[in-house]
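Re: Re: ligand-bound prediction request (bumping)

Still looking for help on this. To restate: I need the protein modeled with flavin-adenine dinucleotide bound, output as structure tokens. Inputs repeated here so nobody has to scroll up.
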Amino acid sequence: MTKKVLVLAEAKNGKLRNVSFEVLTVANRIASDVDINACIFGSNAENYSEELSKYGAQKVYITDNEELKNYTPDGYKQALLQVIEEVNPDVVLTGHTSIGKDILPRVAARLNAALVSDCTDVEMDNGIVFTRPIYSGKTFQKKKVNDDLVMATIRPNNIEAIENPVNSETIKLLATIKDLRSVVKEVVSKASGKVDLSEAKAIISGGRGVKSAEGFKPLQELADVLGGAVGASRAACDADYCDYSLQIGQTGKVVTPDLYIACGISGAIQHLAGMSSSKVIVAINKDPEANIFQVSDYGIVGDLFEVVPLLTEEFKKVINETKTLVE
Ligand code: FAD
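Reply:
Sorry for the wait, this slipped through. Here it is.
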């Protein structure tokens, strides 16, 4: 039976987030013949509909109320409820991002719908089967949900975004937004993060072993060479070596890059919860018994202050050689 799917897309700094294309790819798997709808909120939302249609969105609902320029739980909840009423979907999907994990439980609770959060895979097998990590990522659970209305958040960087261009219709919806309990007056971004941590393909993470804020510099240099981002363990954040926005783990961000290099991180379970599903894990640690080596594909026993600069130089050479070959 055809499923009607609604995807809540997200944009950041004037660009659609890659996770929105990944979520649309999931929608394509679920709704094999028709009815993939997307919605996006905020000013200039119209600019995004063409790109969303490249990934299969047949109808794009845009709501560019001034009140939705910045995310607020109340504003987005009201707007999403109104789009849901208009579309009447069987499935509502969005990315497992700060916004996604905040908004979808609110809306699911309001509509008494099923909610599956932080899915790493979705497939059809006589119904929709969601895969999600449990016990801090130690194992994965497959969940079939038969409720009339199902909502799910999809973990970024897990499902390859596949284009599926379709003709799309853009529908403007002026949402009624009222009684906002919070208003965002200004968003001040941190200058540090050049690449979004949750969508980075390579992450160089530092722990207590990095020893100081200064110690993070060689990690940033390696991240720059690889076009990646810098992350951290909670111990490094607690010690004020870096900002909490870089924390990876159970109480930080959950990431799934292609390459995760853990430098001076022991591998506590709470840290592993945030990075163990990375595609390739490299650990650099002085202690050969460190737990991080248990989850690593490659382990280097050594001093990170010697190893990281050597890696940076080697990567520079390889990347330059590859460029020369391509040219
Ligand atoms: P340590 O465990 O102190 O390890 C430092 C490592 O650096 C050691 O293995 C050492 O051998 C190595 N080292 C030292 N010097 C060098 C060098 N020069 N070269 C190479 N290696 C070196 N932690 C998180 O990371 N994320 C979370 O989200 C998180 N949430 C938590 C939630 C709760 C409820 C609790 C209780 C804890 C949480 N923690 C979290 C903390 C977690 O338990 C660990 O304390 C923390 O991850 C340890 O960080 P670390 O590996 O950097 O430090």
